Amino acid sequence: MQVKVINHPLIQHKLTLIRDKNTGPKEFRELLEEVAMLMGYELTRDLPLEEIEIETPVTKCTCKTLSGKKIGIVPILRAGLGMVSGFLRLIPAAKVGHVGVYRDPQTLKPVEYYCKLPTDVAERDFVVIDPMLATGGSSVAAISLLKQKGAKNIKLMCLVAAPEGIHLVNEQHPDVEVYTASVDERLNDHGYIVPGLGDAGDRIFGTK
Ligand code: URA
């Protein structure tokens, strides 16, 4: 199983609060945004730098700056939306695409119902965002869509992952690095991650 678990104490602390069923939507959204920012810090560790000349108030110096790599983030609707603002606080210039995928109740296969991506897909590095990597069907479908449109470098960021979902992504897209704050035990009979945090979309948007 290829997965990077981000064990930072702040992330783990906030994840526990997020998991707690007594945490209401306002706090849930705020915590999710904070965790997305902290996870984004880890995901962007390998961004290339270049050196530029600047002048401080004291002297000229050669300093490092991001080398202009273009980033795109793609939340999977709808729960992925809850992690967008946190990531954008780190990289405000990132373009945001959206992918909507649902599971056909008959075939149980993912069906795309919405896809809007930046026009320059082939020039960007992408982070696909879904707080919950459950069966992995939606993430695999979203990554396949991005690849069809020309994306070459894709990472997957999820708050909580089930082993089943990680296996599927590893199998279908071995080039995609999966980042998570926790690999949970399993999926239950209803497709929920155990112990998980319930339905992420419902908890973000206050629906049932
Ligand atoms: N989606 C969720 O929101 N929660 C789960 O546990 C699994 C999928």
UniProtKB/TrEMBL annotation:
Keyword GTP-binding: yes
Chain sites annotated for binding 5-phospho-alpha-D-ribose 1-diphosphate: R78, R103, D130, P131, M132, L133, A134, T135, G136, G137, S138, D199
Documented activity regulation: Allosterically activated by GTP.
Catalytic activity: UMP + diphosphate = 5-phospho-alpha-D-ribose 1-diphosphate + uracil
Cofactor(s) this protein requires: Mg(2+)
Keywords: Allosteric enzyme, Glycosyltransferase, GTP-binding, Magnesium, Nucleotide-binding, Transferase
List of residues binding uracil: I193, G198, D199, A200
A GO BP annotation: uracil salvage
UniProt-listed PANTHER family: ADENINE PHOSPHORIBOSYLTRANSFERASE, URACIL PHOSPHORIBOSYLTRANSFERASE, CHLOROPLASTIC
Function of the molecule: Catalyzes the conversion of uracil and 5-phospho-alpha-D-ribose 1-diphosphate (PRPP) to UMP and diphosphate.
Protein name (record): Uracil phosphoribosyltransferase
Species the sequence originates in: Anaerospora hongkongensis
Record gene name: upp
